[in-house]
Amino acid sequence: MSADPCRGAESLMQPYLDRVLTEAEVSRIDVHLQECSYCSDRYVFERSLRTAVKSCCCDEPVPDGFVERLRRRCTDQA
Q1: Which of 13, 21, 30, 63 could in theory staple to 25 by disulfide, Cβ–Cβ 3.0 to 4.6 A?
Q2: Which residues are CB-contacts of 11 (< 8 A; sequence separation ≥ 6)?
Q3: Separation of alpha carbons 51 and 44, rounded Å
């Protein structure tokens, strides 16, 4: 993670939720979430948001290319 552990945790939050991190990265995030209430609250929010989106939007198929366009927009705005 970066010198600022919250920044490092924040940058890995989505991959953490997607379960695509290495075992070492997961361990570092787990430790940080146990020690940092701010990041832990962010994690709970992000996990809840994903659950809400899935419950509202998963009945219909995602149009071709939608996920990639969304990623590009989010990256452009960051």
Answers
A1: 21
A2: 2
A3: 11
- Per-residue pLDDT of 27-69, as tens digits, reads 999 999 999 999 999 999 999 998 888 887 767 777 889 888 9
Our measurement of the distance from residue 60's CA atom to the centroid of its chain's CA atoms, rounded to an integer in Å, reads 23
Residue indicated by tokens 């832990």: 40
Contact 46, 17 (CB under 8 A): yes
Provide CB contacts within 8 A for 32, sequence distance 6+: 1, 5, 6, 8, 9, 39
Which amino acid makes up residue 49? L
